[in-house]
UniProtKB/TrEMBL annotation:
Its main location: nucleus. Residues 428-446 have a biased composition (Polar residues). It comes from Lingula anatina (Brachiopod). Residues 409-418, 449-464 have a biased composition (Basic and acidic residues). Residues 306-464, 1154-1174 are annotated as: Disordered. This is Serine/threonine-protein kinase 31. The keyword Transferase applies. One of its GO terms (molecular function) is mRNA binding. Residues 166-225 form the Tudor domain. Residues 806-854 form a coiled coil. One of its GO terms (biological process) is mRNA processing. Residues 15-92 form the RRM domain.
Length: 1259
């Protein structure tokens, strides 16, 4: 039978469900929410119902027929928006349930005739108990699938062209599968939203909803290839789960998957139906169809009912022609083909429209093997057709189906082979008619030849005995048919009645089971325990007895306790203290703004009086505050707050738009409480009575269960009624819960209002307590500051003495310098005078440095007093420079000169000098203010002050600045560092710990600069020094603009150029550029003697494939990115594994190793495994102690920048550094010259095999 075609939407087969009698207010969204639980649907459409004008009709297109059938079964007749809806399948979908009767009926001879081929299948996806997707195994298809897979593996989702807009339904794409993040070919089935689509992977059959961004275009080379997965079903079987039993359906699917997983299926294939190929499967000699059928997840298919047809006509002649001509092979419009007949032609294999055929009957034709819809089959008559053995023609004894009485049914053996019959045995009469209806087309030797006319039918002579007895036989068969039909109808009616009665009994059994469970003692006790638990909660929330604390009333009493209540707003003493303090501050401000020294005495006298009054008020305030029980009061508030939250948590979570005043909320609550108390009290009294009765009964039961001989053997009367007592208590508890559960009643708002009002009052008082503590601490410090100066004035005698000493030392120093110049200009023999004079000069400078340090200490004291207590000091002693000290935080030294230092120019620099200060080495840097973009002296000092304010131990500190007399020449004093990064690497004796400390300190310095919004712009080894603790100290030229700092690009001997690839001449430097240079610094430290000039086409530095630990490589990949926006920040790098879990070397000396280069793409040789950059041990480095560093929060959103160092498998990268050792003392690299000398292949400089791969995260 030819199946009706299914509806298609853009090439997608769907199964339509019609929903009628919908309300006119229905829309697609509402209908979709109702039917989406049955499965994924393609679309929903609505249209008017012209038969019923006040209703709508909806068409829902499901992808799976099972889901559509389930929706019809469950939703048909349900009420939706007050209307009874009718849900049915579309006609062509329902017709698809028909399956050829020959499928699964056991007649192998017929089935074998329908086999279209054999093959080996590999199952890729199971989507039902008897349906699956599989790949047909062949060498050609396997090779093609491997080529597709390999091509998809080499595709990168980031580089592929993503689809623009919604993907098309008729195109083949590649999508990322969610389980392994790999690309597979797919087709789009539907659009779930603007961002997501349902796809089916065409080479495997499974489906999933994916994001449109994960769908990419495929080249025609791969998109034009056919799919490798096809859908198959087990021949003659269909799912037994047509209802909502999804669990059973899933179990059936799982069973089929377990049987076919990893197995090669030997299959016999039958003609496709709706794109699905039925197969009979054999796995290692086991019939899979039979195995699945035995499990009960599937059933055998049954043909659809048809109406009986008229008597068959005689067989046609065999010929070949059109419009009635009987062709031997295939008939067209009226031609009777031998294999299949179509609408008018009597085929040999299939009968059409009443003409007998030799094979299978369709639409009225009596097939030789099976009769359908009126045809006369030789083997089996189906649904109305008179089969051989069932009247109208002759006594042919073959089985019949639904229309003829089968021989073999109801006790009579059948001579045929069909449904409900026995093996076919031909009688003498039947054997004589074999030439009329042969059992196989090859036996039809008595048919007319091909040259007979096609427009006429030659009658076949029949046996006279057959014609004489046909009338009697027909009547006998008709009477038998009537009796059997009546008997069948009665049996069906009885079966239906029994089934209905069985359903009623099952419902009764279920009801009794529930009742039995409810009456079970354990069930009752469980319900009682849960009910009593809720009753306890309600009673604790709203107690009615005198011995239970009412938390709400306790909180109200605590808040309204004005005697112990802590408040700040209404405190008179606090107001008075604030007024006196404001008056004192105003006096100080007037003195600070005073410009005339003669006005100071009157202002100072007024200020001193105000200070005394402030001292008196502060003393009184602190005495009274110390008497307040702040700690005890705060503990009470915290205690009641925690109890309220634990007891009334659900009420507190209710959102209220506005809270009333505290007094009003208390009044409303107490009125409501008084009304509810009487009802609740009576209910609780009744519950207590029942509870006491049950408790007494259980006590008696316990006594009776004791094994003591003194126990009474008689059962007390209370135990007899225990079941009644339990039921009564359960009822009372339920009633009390119903009355007391105010959380789920309209009264919940009243309770929530009072509780949230109480919490707000408690929180407000807690804030007052915290504020009072802050005021107490602030005023205590203020009292401490002003108390020493109530009767005293600051003294400047010590500062005056120091300044006199400095003046004398400067005079002596000038004379000694003059003597030195005279002695150097003299032509006389100097003898020991010159060394003696140098020694005296050194001693004088040392004394002068010490005196200068003492002067700065005294100035610091006076500056602090000037800011806090005595602003008049600036006007009284202008010669001390107190205002200058305050303005620049003691950075600028007055009266200092270069003659106070023994300066030696640093090599290769005319502006940097080495000197000593107070016995330690220092550096003086010369600046010319007003040139090189430095701006005015004021701007210069502002930059210096801002840099000093950073206060980081990882930046070279700025100690002091002094100007020469001309005002343009300036010198800045900084500490002297003996070694920088270049010197550390040049020594070749550094340990892994030293490198780690150097990098860690440098990175911390970058964090401080970037946090303050500053860009270094010139990070390279010469600007990184080694501090006394071994950590890196970053040198920063704060006097220059960013463009000036980045103006000079440093290139070192190993070819590393410290400049980010995106930076062009004249461009301002960026923070991302600093991080790129930090990555270059890492490479320079690890490979100082290796040619590192190799870069890619964009100028990005390659990362070596060896000699770098995995954790350090991740750091390099995070900063050596082509795109600056993808580089990690300094703050994020400090959180990486390399800077948090870094192994250190032992103190032992390391031995130099040879650096081994390897070809691109090859793994390290076994001999190089276990060796690292340096020979090191496994000691762990602890995080450095905290340095006094001000960390500014960076303006950059570090979370928005992808950091490759965060990996799902970080454990694999936390290897010890001693697994990859290598030395810097000797490097065995062949240059072009020595390669050419020994005859080996020459590798161009700048493209060594040391760089086999580019960075993976540069897209």
């Amino acid at each position: 039978m030819k199946m009706a075609s299914l509806p298609r939407h853009h090439g997608v087969i769907t199964h339509d469900v019609y929903v009628t009698n919908l309300s006119v207010d229905a829309n697609e969204d509402n209908i979709g929410r109702i039917f989406q639980r049955y499965g994924i649907y393609h679309s929903i459409s609505l249209e008017k119902n012209y038969k019923r004008p006040n209703s709508l009709v909806a068409t829902i297109s499901f992808y799976e027929q099972r889901e559509a059938l389930c929706a019809c079964s469950e939703m048909n007749g349900k009420l939706v928006e007050g209307r009874k809806i009718f849900v049915n399948m579309r006609r062509q979908d329902r017709s698809s349930d028909y399956v050829d009767h020959s499928m699964g009926d056991g007649r192998d001879s017929v089935m074998n005739n329908n086999v279209v081929g054999e093959g080996i299948l590999l199952v890729t996806h199971c989507d039902g108990p008897c349906t699956f997707w599989a790949q047909l195994m062949s060498q050609e298809k396997t090779e093609e699938l491997l080529r597709i897979t390999e091509a998809l593996l080499h595709m990168n989702i980031n580089t592929c062209k993503s689809v623009q807009g919604p993907p098309h339904f008729d195109r083949v794409y590649a999508a990322v599968f969610s389980e392994d993040d790999m690309l597979y070919r797919c087709k789009v089935l539907s659009h779930h939203s603007m961002e997501k689509s349902l796809v089916q992977y065409i080479d495997y059959g499974n489906r999933e909803v994916v994001s449109n961004s994960s769908i990419v275009e495929l080249s025609p080379q791969w998109s034009m290839l056919p799919s490798h997965a096809a859908k198959y079903c087990l021949y003659g079987l269909t799912s037994a789960c047509k209802d909502s039993d999804r669990e059973r359906y899933a179990k059936g699917t799982s069973y089929l998957k377990s049987q076919t997983d990893g197995q090669y299926l030997q299959c016999q294939m039958y003609p496709q139906q709706d794109g699905i190929t039925p197969v009979k499967v054999n796995i290692n000699g086991v019939d899979l169809n039979a195995e699945v059928l035995c499990q009960g997840f599937v059933i055998e298919t049954v043909p659809a009912k048809t109406a009986p047809s008229a008597l068959p006509a005689p067989p046609p002649p065999r010929g070949n022609g059109a419009k009635g001509g009987p062709p031997y092979g295939d008939g067209g419009s009226g031609g009777p083909p031998r294999g299949d007949g179509a609408k008018g032609g009597p085929p040999y294999g299939d009968g059409a429209r009443g003409i007998p055929s030799y094979g299978d009957g369709g639409r009225g034709g009596p097939p030789y093997g099976d009769g359908a819809r009126g045809g006369l089959p030789y083997g089996d008559g189906a649904r109305g057709g008179p089969p051989q053995g069932d009247g109208r023609i002759g006594p042919l004894r073959v089985d019949s189906g639904r229309g003829g009485p089968p021989h073999g049914a109801r006790g009579e053996p059948s001579h045929g082979d069909g449904a409900r019959g026995g093996p076919m045995v031909l009688s003498h009469t039947e054997q004589q008619q074999q030439h009329i209806f042969p059992s196989h087309p090859s036996q039809a030797l008595s048919c007319p030849s091909d040259k007979d006319s096609t427009d006429s039918v030659v009658p076949v002579e029949r046996d006279p005995r057959f014609d004489a007895s046909s009338s009697v036989k027909i009547k006998e068969l008709e009477s038998t048919l009537t009796a059997v039909t009546a008997e069948r109808d009665a049996a069906l009616l009885e079966l239906s009645r029994v089934k209905g009665k069985g359903k009623v009994l099952q419902l009764e059994v279920d009801s009794l089971t529930v009742k039995l469970a409810e009456t079970n003692i354990s069930h009752k006790m469980k319900n009682l325990v849960e009910g009593i638990k809720r009753v306890k909660l309600f009673r604790s929330q709203f107690p009615t007895d005198d011995h239970t604390d009412d938390l709400i009333e306790m909180a109200i009493g605590l808040i309204t306790d004005h005697k112990n209540k802590i408040t700040v707003t209404d405190s008179t003493m606090i107001t008075m203290v604030k007024e006196v303090e404001a008056q004192y501050r105003a006096c100080q401000a007037v003195i600070k703004d005073c410009k005339h020294k003669e006005e100071l005495p009157g202002l100072v006298s007024q200020r001193d009086e105000s200070r005394v009054e402030l001292h008196r008020k502060l003393t009184a305030f602190l005495e009274n505050t110390s008497k307040l029980p702040l700690q005890e009061r705060e503990e009470e508030l915290m205690n009641i707050l925690s109890k309220l939250q634990a007891t009334y948590g659900d009420f507190l979570r209710e959102k209220l738009s506005k809270l009333p005043g505290f007094t009003r909320a208390v009044e409303v609550y107490r009125d409501w409480r008084a009304k509810k108390k009487a009802t609740v009290s009576d209910m609780r009294t009744a519950t207590n009575t029942c509870h006491n009765s049950v408790s007494s009964a259980f006590q008696m039961l316990q006594q009776q269960l004791e094994l003591d001989s003194s126990s009474s053997s008689e059962c007390p009367s209370g135990l007899v009624n225990l079941d009644t007592l339990l039921s009564r208590l359960e009822h009372r508890i339920a009633e009390e819960i119903k009355v007391s559960d105010w959380e789920h009643s309209p009264d919940a708002t009243v309770v929530s209002t009072i509780l949230q009002t109480l919490l707000a009052a408690v929180e407000e008082e807690k804030k007052d307590i915290a504020k009072l503590r802050e005021m107490k601490s602030y005023y205590s410090k203020l009292l401490y500051d002003i108390e020493p100066w109530l009767l005293n004035k600051p003294s400047v005698e010590e500062l005056t003495r120091v300044r006199k000493m400095i003046k004398a030392l400067k005079s002596r120093l000038r004379h000694k310098i003059a003597d030195l110049h005279d002695l150097e200009d003299s032509d006389e023999s100097q003898g020991d005078e010159l060394p003696t004079l140098h020694k005296q000069l050194a001693e004088l400078r040392q004394q002068l440095h010490q005196a200068s340090t003492e002067e700065q200490e005294e100035l610091a004291i006076l500056a602090d007093l000037s800011k806090n207590s005595f602003p008049e000091l600036n006007l009284e002693y202008p010669e001390f420079g107190i205002k200058n000290y305050v303005d620049y935080d003691g950075l600028v030294l007055l009266g200092c000169d270069t003659t106070h230092f023994d300066m030696v120019a640093v090599k290769d620099s005319a502006t940097v000098f080495k000197t000593t200060f107070s016995g330690r080495d220092a550096v003086l840097r010369e600046y010319i203010v007003g040139s090189h973009g430095g701006g005015s002296q004021k701007e210069f000092l502002k930059k210096a002050k801002d840099y000093k304010a950073l206060g980081s131990g990882r930046l070279v500190p700025l100690e002091a600045i002094f100007f020469q007399k001309n005002g343009c020449q300036c010198f800045a004093r900084t500490p002297y560092y003996k070694l920088n990064a270049g010197g550390l690497s040049a020594k070749g004796e550094a340990s892994t710990e030293a490198f780690y400390k150097l990098l860690y300190g440098t990175l911390e310095g970058l964090c401080v600069l970037h946090g303050a919004g500053l860009v270094h712009g010139a990070l390279h080894p010469e600007n990184v020094f080694i501090g006394e603790d071994g950590y890196g100290v970053l040198d920063f030229n704060w006097s220059l603009t960013p463009e000036q700092r980045a103006g000079t690009v440093k290139t070192f001997s190993n070819g590393l150029k410290f400049c980010p690839p995106e930076m062009k001449p004249g461009d301002p430097p960026t923070m991302q550029g600093d991080l790129y240079c930090f990555g270059l610094l890492i490479l320079w430290l690890h490979f100082p003697e290796v040619n590192m000039s190799a870069v890619d086409s964009d100028g990005v530095q390659y990362i070596p494939a060896y000699g770098v630990t995995p954790t350090l490589k991740l750091v390099l990949e995070a900063v050596l990115q082509r795109n600056p926006a993808q580089r990690a920040t300094a703050e994020r790098l400090l959180q990486s594994d390399f800077f948090t879990e870094t192994p250190l070397v032992n103190s032992e000396e390391f031995e130099p190793e040879t650096l081994q280069l390897r070809p691109r793409g090859l793994s390290p040789s076994p001999t190089s495994q276990g060796k690292g950059i340096l020979k090191n041990g496994t000691a762990k480095l602890q995080r450095p102690e905290v340095v006094e560093t001000k960390m500014w929060k960076s303006d950059i959103d570090v979370t928005a920048i992808p950091l490759p160092i965060e990996s799902d498998s970080q454990e694999s990268f936390t290897e010890q550094m001693d697994t990859e050792q290598i030395s810097f003392k000797s490097v065995d690299i062949k240059t072009e010259e020595n390669r050419a000398a020994d005859g080996s292949n020459v590798t161009p400089t700048g493209d060594l095999d040391i760089f086999p791969t580019k960075i993976a995260h540069r897209n």
